[in-house]
Write a structure and sequence with these properties.
This protein is of the alpha+beta class. It has eleven helices and ten strands. A five-stranded antiparallel beta sheet has the order 2-1-10-9-8, with helices on both faces. It has a three-stranded antiparallel beta sheet with strand order 3-7-4.
Length: 372
């Protein structure tokens, strides 16, 4: 029997059981691609074409490690910022409010005291029609910053952890302030182009057509508020209000492109040639000692239970995305696993992926590591 059969069968079964309309699973071990499985269709309503390994997905919160945390690691390495720096020392308009005294490190480890989520998009005023695209983004950012200014901290920074999109919105602003470049441009020029990670980036339907194949983008939800099926447009409402470029969401890409950035982190961790500094990478993927927290800096680590299943080592690091995406890396076995799907299509009420994730990771670990 072909060794890919059990994994392919499990993915096909997930489509049949309605876990997602389609998905791509990519598995690499010690630098060798073992599996790149594409199953199902791009959409069910309306019916879409078959998924391929070139299908582009809304990566949702994979934006946090693959864009924001990677960008900050480069900026730390370049001496532009330190993880110990106070938020108010960078975003000076926040210097005299509660979050101003928190650090970049506490934002990265979800221990800043900020709430997890707020519907800021509901409170934001529309820009005037004569605003340019850049003006609209600046207008939106100023409004979000002002809304975050008013947030009371839910706990003393560093004393506990609460997964926070709000904190990563601020980190996106910090990348822009310290680099002097918009987040999407900095990530493209400093990370994705040097690594030849493509297609990977923000705003796929608003950038050069040479970079994206529009027909290969999987749609997400039929959004009643926006009045359309979202395709090539970020699913997250706050990221959408920020023009599709935000520190917590907005990144799109293929499984192969995700693996390109993943590989840079893994090689650096193991002391191999990489544009990322190994010492910093090991610091960023290590738990930060926050009580009862599994969070590192921009990355999660396995907890009990974990979406990575039962077998990934305690040195592993990864992240999930709300739309149905995930990345887990076990540096001990040199195992990288990317699962991309649009489980929120046609509705976010479908949560079957929560049970599927640990099962597929256990299966592929047994097949790819245990069976060798």
């Amino acid at each position: 029997m072909n060794r890919a059969d059990p994994i392919h069968a499990a993915m096909q079964a997930a489509v049949a059981e309605g876990v997602f309309p389609g998905a791509v699973l990519a598995v690499r071990l010690k630098g060798e691609m073992l599996h790149c499985v594409a199953v199902g269709r791009l959409s069910s309503d309306p019916p879409g074409g078959p998924v391929s390994v070139r299908t582009v997905y809304d990566l949702a919160s994979l934006t946090k490690p693959l864009a924001t945390a990677t960008a900050l690691l480069l900026l730390v390495d370049g001496g532009k910022v330190a993880v110990e720096t106070r938020v108010g020392d960078i975003l000076t308009e926040l210097n005299d409010c509660a979050i101003g005294s928190a650090t970049v490190q506490s934002l990265l480890s979800h221990s800043s005291g900020l709430p997890g989520w707020r519907a800021y998009y509901e409170k934001m005023r529309e820009p005037t029609s004569d605003h340019t695209a850049e003006d609209k983004r600046s207008w939106a950012q100023r409004q979000v910053m002002e809304l975050i200014r008013t947030e009371a901290l839910l706990y003393e920074p560093g004393t506990r952890s609460l997964y926070s999109d709000v904190g990563f919105m601020l980190l996106g602003f910090i990348v822009e302030r310290t680099s002097g470049s918009p987040l999407d441009r900095f990530c493209l020029n400093a990370i994705y182009r040097p690594l030849d990670a493509k297609p990977l980036g923000f705003l796929p339907l608003h950038t050069t057509r040479a970079f994206w194949d529009d027909s290969a983008i999987a749609p997400t939800e039929l959004d009643l508020r926006r009045g359309r099926l979202l395709r090539g447009e970020v699913h997250d409402d706050n990221a959408g209000a920020l023009g599709g470029v935000a520190g917590h969401a907005g990144l799109f890409g293929t499984a192969a492109a995700v693996l390109t950035v993943s590989g840079a982190w893994l090689r650096a961790y193991r002391g191999k040639p990489s544009p990322l500094a190994g010492e910093l990478v090991r610091r960023f993927v290590t738990r930060q000692g926050v009580p009862e927290s599994s969070w590192a800096l921009g990355w999660d680590t396995p907890s009990t239970p974990s979406s990575s299943g039962r077998y990934f080592s305690d040195r592993s690091f990864g992240h999930l995305g709300y739309t149905g995406t995930s990345l887990w890396i076990d540096p001990v076995e040199e195992l990288e696993v990317v699962l991309l799907s649009n489980r929120v299509h046609p509705t976010r009420r479908n949560e079957k992926i929560k049970e599927f994730r640990p099962l597929i990771h256990d299966l592929l670990y047994r097949e790819c590591v245990g069976g060798r």
